[in-house]
Design a protein that fits this description.
405 residues, alpha/beta, Enolase-like, domain 1, TIM Barrel, 2 domains, ten-stranded mixed beta sheet, three-stranded antiparallel beta sheet, 12 helices, 20 strands, 34% helix, binds (2S,3R,4R)-2,3,4,5-tetrahydroxy-N-oxo-pentanamide, binds cobalt (II) ion
Length: 405
């Protein structure tokens, strides 16, 4: 590969239905790279971090030195880790790998180990306002060809549940203005969920992979109860059963159940995972490329996890941009210990701005051999949709106590 120089880098913020932040890095060879820098509800913090502190230090560097540049912005910076920092680093890292793969005229997966598989299994979401509607939605997603489905449902006695949209709008948890407040009742939730999965298994049998996201709403002992009661329904995984900033909390769940656990879409560093991995307290790593320092960092996290027979199961909601999704699919294609990838189809507006090179085929995603990540942004289309501040909701228990959303 010829020596190159970074000549310019720009942050593109747009809002085709929701806010996305994209980093575009240019080189003296005419090649540019793209990285996703979207952090839902905190977009401008990452923009400032990139524009004020990272881009000036990037200019003139050789983009091929992905390892050195990663450490320059991680090890070289006194204030380490954190979602904003690691999202900014991820965007830089993704764009540099994109440039390197384009310079070598090869799809990104070839630089990450080549093809370990031909296609990537994905799961989608099914949700309804009540049990019957939820079951109907599972049937619809199955008809679309999905062989793995995450199930969330409205719960009797709770006004609004995570993962269930209002009306018939597509799933979008961020809302304009200051955060909305929802009310939450764990007892009602715990009493409802096992029965839901019993009905789903009754309706669809054992063939289909089922998943559920607790979204950090249980204490360790509550999560242990839920895991134990869901055991007969053979979930593919139970996601974020507790808010895992206390890694040791997962020990209690393991003690009481053999349900596979996926954790950490809100994590951003390998150090969020060391106890979880080395004590084999989880089964799937959720931290996505965009929030976890990019390809360079996730390669190391995945390698460490592989030693403990832990697989990847990257976060892939629609508030991560198509650039992240495309890069993740290369990563999923290449590494040995890939498990499952979350995938939600983007609304048409998003596809007007971002061009991608992957396609859905009967429950799996396939990427083509376009050099680089294979995703692009139409900047003219992006300009039509200016940024508009939006935030994730806040949750309170029924007595008003602030709780995890
Ligand atoms: O709440 O992406 O598993 N998926 C999730 C997502 C997250 C949102 C937060 O921005 O938990 O729906
Ligand atoms: Co989740």
């Amino acid at each position: 590969m010829e020596k190159m120089k970074i000549t310019e880098a720009r942050v593109i913020v747009c809002s085709p239905g929701r806010n996305f932040v994209t980093l575009k890095i240019f080189t003296d060879q005419g090649i540019y790279g793209l990285g996703d820098a979207t952090l839902n509800g905190r977009e401008k913090a990452v923009v400032t971090y990139l524009e004020e502190y990272c881009i000036p230090a990037l200019l003139g560097r050789d983009p091929g030195n992905t390892e050195d540049i990663w450490h320059y912005f991680y090890s070289g910076v006194y204030w380490k880790r954190g979602a904003i920092t690691m999202t900014a680093i991820a965007a830089i890292d993704m764009a540099l790998w994109d440039i390197k793969a384009k310079a070598l005229n090869t799809p990104l997966y070839n630089l990450l180990g080549g093809k370990s598989r031909d296609r990537v299994m994905v799961y989608t979401h099914a949700y309804g306002k009540h049990l019957m509607e939820t079951i109907e939605k599972v049937g619809q997603e199955k008809e679309r060809g999905y062989c793995a489905i995450r199930i969330q449902s409205g719960i009797p006695g709770i006004d609004h549940t995570y993962g269930v949209t209002e009306g018939n709008k597509p799933y979008e948890p961020a809302q304009r203005g200051i955060p909305r407040e929802y009310s939450w009742d764990t007892a009602k939730y715990l009493n409802f969920i096992p029965g839901l999965f019993a009905e789903v298994r009754k309706a669809f049998g054992e063939e289909i992979h089922l998943l559920h996201d607790v979204h950090h709403r249980c204490t360790p002992v509550e999560a242990a109860r839920l895991a134990k009661e869901l055991e007969p329904y053979h979930l593919f995984w139970l996601e974020d059963p507790v808010s895992a900033e206390l890694q040791e909390g997962l020990r209690l769940i393991r003690k009481h159940s053999v349900i596979p656990i996926a954790i950490g879409e809100v994590f951003n560093s390998v150090y969020d995972y060391t106890t979880l991995i080395t004590e084999q307290l989880i089964d799937y790593i959720r931290m996505p490329l965009v929030h976890g320092g990019g390809i360079t960092h996730l390669l190391k996290v995945a390698a460490m996890a592989s030693v403990y027979h832990i697989q990847t199961g990257f976060h892939g909601a629609t508030d991560l941009s198509p650039v992240n999704m495309a890069a993740a699919l290369h990563f999923d294609t290449a590494i040995h210990n890939f498990g499952l990838q979350e995938y939600m189809p983007y609304p048409d507006l998003v596809q007007e701005v971002f061009r991608t090179n992957y396609r859905f085929e009967k429950g799996y995603m396939v990427i083509d051999d376009t050099p680089g990540i294979g995703a692009d942004i139409d900047e003219e289309a992006a300009q039509k949709y200016p940024y508009s501040a939006a935030c994730l909701p806040v949750n309170r228990k029924t007595d008003g106590t602030l709780f995890y959303w």
